[in-house]
Amino acid sequence: AKTFTIAIDGPAASGKGTLARRLAAHYGFHHLDTGLTYRAVAKALIDRGLPLDNEAIAAEMAQNLDLKHLDRKALATHDVGEAASKVAIMPAVRRALVAAQRAFAQTLPGTVLDGRDIGTVVCPDAPVKLYVTASAQARAKRRHAEILAGDGEADLAAILADLERRDARDMGRTDSPLKPADDAHLLDTTEMDIETAFLAAKRLVDEAL
Ligand code: C5P
Question: What positions does the entry give for ATP binding (predicted)?
Answer without folding.
Answer: 10-18
